[in-house]
């Protein structure tokens, strides 16, 4: 019995000794995470809104031809892409009611003029007879009334003829500026309606273009007329400026349309989508960090601040932003060191090795 107990104790001792030797292999040492850093500074920043827009003709540089009333096209000589000069005939319509109405009103003028002639002669006879005591005063008054009525009819006929001629003149449409035919939807002989959905021809001035950008309502408040803007992406560097912004916003609107004028000549096709950056307000003497330092998680924004070789996560409130820097309204002070790269997925309080932004690396 004692021999068996001694053997058991010896075996247990061997097991414990074996476990004691294996324990160090299970201990893991966490490696420091390499990151780059920069210092939060005090300075000035101009906010930028990066939005999409569409190239459109400027006001007064877009002319759409629509029939004045249901009509047939007699002449349309310009094709898409053709240049036009101010005063060129674009479309000539045949309006059946126009020619007949002009003739009718001219006939009314002739009848009114003949009636005036007869009324004047009758008035002269009535006065002569009255002066000789043959006619009564009422006959003179009736003659004067007939003349007045005839003159009123003449004025009405002349007004009707003028209106008919105005409509007749609308049967010929001329270019109101030098431009290019952007769209042609009909040919000679087509019958068209007097509706904006039945456009005959569209002429634009390619020298007067602008960008209509959709800007979030919250950003539009800080965008002023005359503010600088620029195209980005493939057309980077093309300068624009804010031409106008709406003075009222429809309830429930998420974005508003802001018009941007090209600073120089532009050769972009109408309807082309573009991406633009628009300068907003400028804030001075404010805390700034590199834009890359900001971590976004849903609606939350944070920055990792370096303290004692560790990265501490801090929630921050942002102010203005652009492609290079972000304004920190609350959460970070000037002079503190922030992580600018390597912070994605970084645990709060993780040990780090740091290098200033632009350096190849190095241990803190």
What does this structure look like?
The chain is α+β, with helices and mostly antiparallel strands and 364 residues long. It folds into four domains: 88 residues, conserved putative lor/sdh protein from methanococcus maripaludis s2 fold, CATH 2.40.420; 87 residues, Efflux pump adaptor protein, beta barrel domain (Elongation Factor Tu (Ef-tu), domain 3, Beta Barrel), CATH 2.40.30; 60 residues, OB fold (Dihydrolipoamide Acetyltransferase, E2P) (Beta Barrel); 75 residues, Helix Hairpins, CATH 1.10.287. The chain is elongated and about 130 Å long. The N terminus and C terminus are likely disordered.
How many structural domains can be distinguished in the coordinates? 4
Q: What is the residue-mean pLDDT, rounded to a whole number? A: 85
Question: Within the largest sheet, what's the order of strands?
Answer: 16-17-18-22-1-21
Topology-level CATH name of the largest domain: conserved putative lor/sdh protein from methanococcus maripaludis s2 fold
Structural classification: alpha+beta
The global form is: elongated
Terminal CA distance: 65 Å
**CATH architectural name of the largest domain:** Beta Barrel
CATH class of the largest domain: Mainly Beta
How helix-rich are the residues, as a percent range? 25-40%
Rg, nearest Å: 43 Å
Largest sheet: 6 strands, mixed
Uncertain stretches of 5 or more adjacent residues? 1-10, 13-29, 360-364
N to C succession of SSEs: HEEEEEEHHEEEEEHEEEEEEEEEEE
Number of helices: 4
The percent range for strand residues is: 35-45%
Please count the beta strands (DSSP E, at least 2 residues each): 22
């Amino acid at each position: 019995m004692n021999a068996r107990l001694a053997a058991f104790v010896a075996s247990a001792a061997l097991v414990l000794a074996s476990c004691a030797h294996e324990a160090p292999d299970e201990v893991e040492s966490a490696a420091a995470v390499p990151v780059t850093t920069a210092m939060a500074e005090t300075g000035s920043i101009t906010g930028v809104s990066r939005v999409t827009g569409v190239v459109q003709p400027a006001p007064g540089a877009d002319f759409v031809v629509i029939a004045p009333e249901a009509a047939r096209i007699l002449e349309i000589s310009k094709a898409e892409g053709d240049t036009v000069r101010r005063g060129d005939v674009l479309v000539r319509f045949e309006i059946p009611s126009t020619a007949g109405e002009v003739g009718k009103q001219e006939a009314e003028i002739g009848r009114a003029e003949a009636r005036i002639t007869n009324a004047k002669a009758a008035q002269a006879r009535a006065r002569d007879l009255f002066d000789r005591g043959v006619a009564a005063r009422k006959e003179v008054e009736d003659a004067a009334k007939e003349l007045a009525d005839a003159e009123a009819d003449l004025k009405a006929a002349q007004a009707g003829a003028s209106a008919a001629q105005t409509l007749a003149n609308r049967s010929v449409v001329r270019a109101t500026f030098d431009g290019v035919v952007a769209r042609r939807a009909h040919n000679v002989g087509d019958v068209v309606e007097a509706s904006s959905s039945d456009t005959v021809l569209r002429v634009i001035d390619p020298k007067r273009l602008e960008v209509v950008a959709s800007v979030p309502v919250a950003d539009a408040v800080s965008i002023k007329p005359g503010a600088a803007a620029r195209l980005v992406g493939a057309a980077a560097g093309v300068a624009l400026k804010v031409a106008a912004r709406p003075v009222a916003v429809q309830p429930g609107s998420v974005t508003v349309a802001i018009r941007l004028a090209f600073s120089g000549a532009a050769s972009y096709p109408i309807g082309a989508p573009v991406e633009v950056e628009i300068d907003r307000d400028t804030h001075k003497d404010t805390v700034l960090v590199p834009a890359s330092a900001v971590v976004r998680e849903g609606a939350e924004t944070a920055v990792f601040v370096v303290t004692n070789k560790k990265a501490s996560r801090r929630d921050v409130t942002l102010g203005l932003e652009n492609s290079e820097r972000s304004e920190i309204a609350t959460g970070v002070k000037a002079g503190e060191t922030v992580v600018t790269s390597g912070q994605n997925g970084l645990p709060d309080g993780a040990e780090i090795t740091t290098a200033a932004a632009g350096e190849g690396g190095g241990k803190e």
